[in-house]
Amino acid sequence: MSELVSTYLREVASRLNQLAAEANAGALDAAVELIVGAIEAGGVVQAFGTGHSEAFAMEIAGRAGGLIPTNKIALRDVVLRGSREAGTLKGSSLERDPAVVEELFKLSPVGKHDVFIIASNSGVNGSIVGLALLAKSRGHKLIAVTSLQHTAGVATKHPSGVRLSEIADVVIDNKAPFGDTTLELPDGGGVGAVSSITAAFIAQLLTIGAAERIRAAGKTPPIYISANIPGGDEHNQALENLYKDRIRREA
pTM of the prediction? Predict the structure, then answer.
């Protein structure tokens, strides 16, 4: 197993190094500008992902070291707050349903100055493409985090015929290979997926970039500190109150 672990480490590290080099060269600047512009205008960052890409939205919204004016949109909201039955959450049918996004958008605390960040490794499922199209139609800027290699190799599941990468104002490649896995087992099958790791790294690079940009303008970045250190709850609550009814923080 040690050989596979070492190989996987090289696969992950090479991608993180490439993303860091691109960030240092300015590849994420356009996305950072959209985030900072939204915050300066009084908006928030609306993050969305389905399946394992929901982890990206969680990395953007509501964690220690993260920006406070951020909100996570989740498919389960159409059950918790909307008209859908709990059974619709089984399997991947809701994720692939383009019709779900109208209700999801209405249930979400979206303001006119908000910027959207949508993560999807494939970039082709109905809810992903549907929400991207809806956000753009409402005048919002959109950042996409996706695997350009994977999305180019599959057909979209949305009736529009387009992919997430073809809708966004800014596209960030998560560097995941087609199928996401990086290791082939001797008897067939792949393991060693990387998209969740690279997406989390991208989320942190965007947060760091936005915080740097805000501080460079002479302002204090609205950043969470850990709720598990003294004074954390008080610090966070005071800043969250500035965005009352604009952001949700739930279990």
Answer: 0.96
